[in-house]
């Protein structure tokens, strides 16, 4: 008889190594989704125990207690109590502790015990603790806590063997009669009492060496230095953006030439006509022009994941707290805003770590101003077509400088918007507290980095395959139909629906220097920003005939004035964001009004910025 | 007012300099003027390990107004702003 699926839940404080244990147990057998109604990420994975028991394990959001003061922490509490809608009560709770830092986890465990769920305490990162001279009397700890205790080294092969064995033993003996849940929210005196109890147990069972982690202390002496730390932070960001643009180039060239030859193959094999045009202009040049940016997206996520796993992100928040406070932002907003450079969607979702509502709202409103990776295609295309690749002052590449300027413009406008929000809406307020654990540094592990990048790359490609693909089909259709009447002169696209729509919008966009082709591209750009590039490619390809397919950039250089190109860049600093970002803002703020407000203010800024840029450029003779 | 002699009179951690080491005497959430309610601030401080008897050391300070501070609390390092650290009375 097949035993039913065993349900495990991973609970622990932030930085306890929960996620690396989750990765070690499940490998790539993971499912990431959202809990119903909230945007808290629900990570479930699967594995089989040595005795062949099928196990599902859920990685719950990190928490210091079951009080549930943020949506994340509420999920953890409700899940453990079996109150989360649509979730099964876990058969076994794995309470994960960083062995080098047991105080806070043991307190959490004492609170968890009151829920009556069967539980194991997993002393994770046990190797680091041993190396640092920390010894734990595991047997005595188990006896004092009344909970089985097992050590694990999530990052080493076989490091979870003991845990798996214990899971088998416990699941075989799981009691039929459930223990009563006696948990209720703890008052201050009970919290204090449990922390005292935890400290007593630790004093009895754990011997700590006098010295803290020397590496962490040494690195922090530089990284958290009031001045030196900020210089290090600036250097890291500089290297990150250089890398994204320089290192990704070879891979991007490769992808690009791959799609080009695929397009040529289609052109050579298929007869001229609609099918050829659809495959070559619609599918290959459209979707291809977006997939080309995969290397850059992988690189930016690589940096963010490395910094996160290393333990640097909390330090960055520490360094930036007061500086961002000047613009009315919370130090914790730094991490969401930094993630927004990859994509505003994970950035906005990451604002959940900000527990103050007003701080969180401000961060959500400005997150889309950070230059997300979807804008990279648009910037790269226009910059390479219009900005000469020469050096200024001998060593700085002009194209790179313009790119840097665009990023800087995004950041500065975000700070200004935040300042305005603070000034008008939240005048007399005491800043919300900034309280954050600074974890010891840890060597990032290849496996968890790879899994992290893999999930994100998959999401990007899925988007390219679905949203972007369908938008491209639509654009191709609009740009190809109706077909020109027989004997008509001029490019076929002049007769199409796309031209009609674009020309209807043209009067609105003429003051900022946009022609009807740009108007056509901006509409699908709302679905996903990078589609604008593909759409321009399709529109000009169909207009110019098949020989023009390959080099959108060269086409643009002949069709647009420099003023139009600069205006387009200015537009995309603020670019009314993509539909998915708006959807996430709607979900996270729970309000259509805030979504509308974000859309409106960005549209106004984009139009104003383009208007100024275009007119100044024309006045300077770039028209 | 701030007594820097060796008498180790009680003082809020929020006023201490970098390099200060001491032991938590009690929590006084009312004194902090934090945006959080007294109960909430006290609960959070306890959850991060700030309980009576814990050894604290100020490891680092931020650039602007020497704020926030990175505090070693027994085996953990916690970043807090001085405003909230005013609730932690040390000696």
Automatic annotation (TrEMBL), chain A:
Predominant place of localization: membrane
GO cellular component: plasma membrane
Domain of life: Bacteria
Domain named FeoB-type G: residues: 5-173
Matching InterPro entries: Fe2_transport_prot_B_C, FeoB_GTPase, G_FEOB_dom, Gate_dom, GTP-bd, P-loop_NTPase
Keywords, in A-Z order: Cell inner membrane, Cell membrane, GTP-binding, Ion transport, Iron, Iron transport, Membrane, Nucleotide-binding, Transmembrane, Transmembrane helix, Transport
Membrane topology reported for the UniProt record: Multi-pass membrane protein
Residue ranges of the TM segments: 227-248, 283-307, 327-349, 361-389, 401-425, 460-479, 560-585, 592-617
Subcellular location: Cell inner membrane
Record-level Gene Ontology MF annotations: ferrous iron transmembrane transporter activity; GTP binding
Matching PANTHER family: FE(2+) TRANSPORTER FEOB, FERROUS IRON TRANSPORT PROTEIN B
Annotated protein name in UniProt: Fe(2+) transporter FeoB
TrEMBL record, chain B:
Nucleotide-binding keyword on record: no
Protein name: Ferrous iron transport protein A
InterPro entries: Fe-transptr_FeoA-like, FeoA, FeoA_core_dom, Transcriptional_repressor_C
GO molecular function: transition metal ion binding
Source organism superkingdom: Bacteria
Ferrous iron transporter FeoA-like domain mapped to chain residues: 11-91
Keywords assigned by UniProt, alphabetized: Iron
Keyword presence, Nucleotide-binding: no
Listed Pfam families: FeoA
């Amino acid at each position: 008889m097949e035993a039913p699926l065993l349900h495990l839940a991973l609970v622990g404080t932030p930085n306890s190594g929960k996620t690396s244990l989750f990765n070690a147990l499940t490998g790539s057998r993971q499912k990431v989704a959202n809990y119903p109604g909230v945007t808290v990420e629900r990570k479930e994975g699967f594995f089989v125990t040595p005795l062949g028991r099928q196990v599902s394990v859920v990685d719950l959001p990190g928490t210091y207690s079951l009080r549930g003061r943020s949506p994340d922490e509420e999920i953890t509490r409700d899940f453990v109590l079996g109150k989360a809608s649509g979730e099964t009560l876990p058969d076994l709770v794995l309470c994960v502790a960083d062995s080098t830092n047991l105080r806070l986890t043991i307190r959490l465990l004492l609170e968890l015990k009151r829920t009556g769920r069967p539980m194991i305490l997993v002393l994770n990162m046990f190797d680091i603790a041993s190396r640092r001279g920390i010894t734990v009397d595991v047997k005595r700890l188990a006896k004092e806590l009344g909970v089985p205790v097992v050590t694990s080294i999530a990052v080493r092969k076989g490091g979870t063997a003991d845990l798996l064995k214990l899971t088998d033993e416990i699941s075989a003996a799981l009691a039929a009669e459930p223990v009563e849940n006696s948990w209720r929210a703890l008052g201050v005196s009970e919290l204090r009492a449990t922390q005292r109890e935890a400290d007593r147990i630790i004093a009895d069972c754990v011997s700590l060496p006098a010295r803290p982690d020397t590496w962490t202390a040494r690195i922090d002496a530089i990284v958290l230095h009031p001045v030196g730390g900020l210089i290090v932070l600036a250097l890291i960001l500089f290297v990150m953006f250089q890398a994204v643009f320089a290192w990704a180039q070879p891979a991007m060239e490769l992808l690009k030439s791959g799609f080009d030859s695929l397009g040529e193959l289609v052109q050579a094999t298929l007869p001229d006509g609609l099918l050829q045009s659809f495959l070559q202009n619609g599918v290959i040049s459209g979707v291809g022009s977006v997939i080309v940016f995969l290397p850059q997206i992988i690189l930016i996520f690589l940096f963010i994941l490395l910094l996160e796993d290393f333990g640097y992100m909390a330090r960055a928040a520490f360094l930036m707290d007061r500086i961002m406070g000047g613009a009315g932002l919370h130090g914790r907003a730094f991490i969401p805003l930094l993630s927004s450079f990859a994509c505003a969607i994970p950035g906005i979702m990451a604002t959940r770590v900000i527990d103050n509502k007003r701080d969180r709202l401000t961060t959500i409103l400005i997150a889309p101003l950070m230059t997300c990776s979807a804008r990279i295609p648009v910037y790269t295309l226009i910059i390479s077509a219009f900005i000469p690749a020469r050096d200024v002052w001998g060593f700085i590449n002009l194209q790179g400088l313009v790119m840097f300027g665009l990023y800087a413009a995004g950041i500065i406008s975000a700070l200004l918007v935040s300042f305005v929000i603070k000034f008008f809406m939240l005048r007399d307020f005491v800043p919300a507290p900034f309280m954050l654990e600074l974890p010891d540094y840890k060597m990032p592990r290849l496996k968890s980095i790879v899994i992290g990048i893999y999930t994100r790359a998959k999401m990007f490609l899925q988007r390219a395959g679905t949203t972007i693909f369908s938008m491209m089909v639509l654009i191709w259709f609009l740009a190809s139909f109706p077909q020109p009447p027989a004997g008509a002169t001029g490019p076929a696209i002049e007769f199409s629906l796309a031209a009609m729509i674009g020309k209807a919008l043209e009067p609105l966009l003429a003051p900022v220097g946009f022609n009807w082709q740009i108007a056509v591209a901006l509409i699908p750009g709302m679905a996903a920003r990078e589609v604008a590039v593909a759409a321009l490619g399709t529109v000009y390809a169909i207009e110019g005939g098949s020989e023009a397919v390959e080099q959108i950039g060269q086409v643009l250089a002949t069709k647009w004035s420099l003023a139009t190109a600069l205006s387009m860049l200015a537009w995309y600093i603020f670019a009314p964001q993509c539909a998915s970002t708006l959807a996430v803002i709607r979900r996270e703020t729970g309000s259509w009004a805030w979504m509308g407000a974000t859309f409106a203010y960005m549209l106004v800024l984009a139009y104003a910025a383009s208007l100024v840029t275009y007119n100044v450029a024309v006045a300077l003779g770039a028209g | 007012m701030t007594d820097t002699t060796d008498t180790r009179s009680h003082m809020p951690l929020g006023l201490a300099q970098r390099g200060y080491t001491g032991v938590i005497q009690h929590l006084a959430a009312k004194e902090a003027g934090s945006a959080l309610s007294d109960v909430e601030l006290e609960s959070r401080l306890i959850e991060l390990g700030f309980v009576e008897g814990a050894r604290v050391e100020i490891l680092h300070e931020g650039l602007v107004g020497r704020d926030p501070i990175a505090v070693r609390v027994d085996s953990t390092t916690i970043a807090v702003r001085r405003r909230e650290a005013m609730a932690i009375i040390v000696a």
